[in-house]
Amino acid sequence: MTELSLEAATLESEQTGRTDPDAVDATLAASGDGTAFERLYRRHISRIYGLARRMITDDDIDEVTQDVFVRAWQKLATFRGESAFGTWLHRLAINVILGRRETLGIRRKRYLDSDAMLELIPARRPGPETALDFESAMARLPDGAREVFVLHDVEGYRHEEIAEMLGLATGTSKSQLHRARMALRQHLDR
Amino acid sequence: MSDRWVDQLSDYLDGELPANERVALEAHLQTCDDCSEVLDQLRQVVAQARTLGGVPPRRDLWAGIAQRIGATPGRKAAGELAFRPRAPRRWSFSIPQLAAAAIALMTLSGGSVWLLRGPASPGPVATMVPQPTGPVPAINTAVRGAVGGTDSYAQAVADLERVLATGRGQLDSTTVRVIEQNLAAIDRAIAQAQAALKADPSNLYLNSHLAETMRRKLDLLRQAAALASVS
Question: By CA distance, what is A25's nearest residue in B?
Answer without folding.
Answer: B227
